[in-house]
Design goal:
Layout (H helix, E strand, L loop, with lengths): L6 E3 L6 E3 L6 E5 L2 H7 L4 E7 L10 E5 L6 E6 L5 E9 L2 E7 L15 E2 L18 H20 L2
Parallel strand pairs: 3-9
Antiparallel strand pairs: 1-2, 3-4, 4-8, 5-6, 6-7, 7-8
Bound molecules: zinc ion (2 copies).
């Protein structure tokens, strides 16, 4: 059994936080905002119930960028790199999106369940992971994955 390291931090290391449990959901996103924000062809992030994460709000500046809607992206006040996003599925049902790179150790992170916004891909991904094409199909895929893998986790 792998021991999960719950410590997370932004790329500069000044914004740090921890999560209660290992995430159950990981996704890749090829949307144009992720490409710009991460300066990568696609983002690699995990999703947890927001109640499982204690974010140091004083170190984070939130911006609302689209798509997807209902996602507030949090950036480090010191290095301006992504720290975590807050996704509100409906009032009272909030999830944290944490870039996989922000976990101090990657051990214990799940395999990715899908490529979102794959129609925006800059690089083809030759893997067996499900590809979701189109805006609404990608939105639905992430919503369904959150409901399936993460929502019940929030109740424990
Ligand atoms: Zn930072
Ligand atoms: Zn994206």
């Amino acid at each position: 059994m792998t021991v999960f390291d719950s410590q997370c931090q932004c790329p500069c290391g000044q914004t740090h936080f921890s999560v209660l449990k290992a995430p159950k959901l990981r996704l890749y996103c090829h949307c144009e905002i992720c490409q710009r924000v991460y300066q990568q062809p696609y983002s690699d992030f995990t999703v947890l119930p927001l109640s499982h994460v204690e974010l140091p709000m004083d170190d984070i500046r939130f911006k609302k960028l689209r798509p997807p809607p209902y996602l507030q992206r949090g950036f480090c006040q010191h290095c301006d790199q992504p720290v975590a996003g807050i996704f509100t599925l409906m009032p009272g049902l909030k999830f944290a999106f944490i870039p996989s790179a922000n976990y101090r150790a990657k051990k214990g992170l799940p395999e990715s369940s899908g490529h979102l916004f794959y129609h925006r891909r800059r690089v083809p991904c030759d893997d067996n992971i499900t590809k979701h094409h189109g805006y609404w199909r990608s939105e639905w895929a992430v919503t369904k994955a959150v409901l399936t893998h993460v929502m019940m986790q929030g109740r424990t």
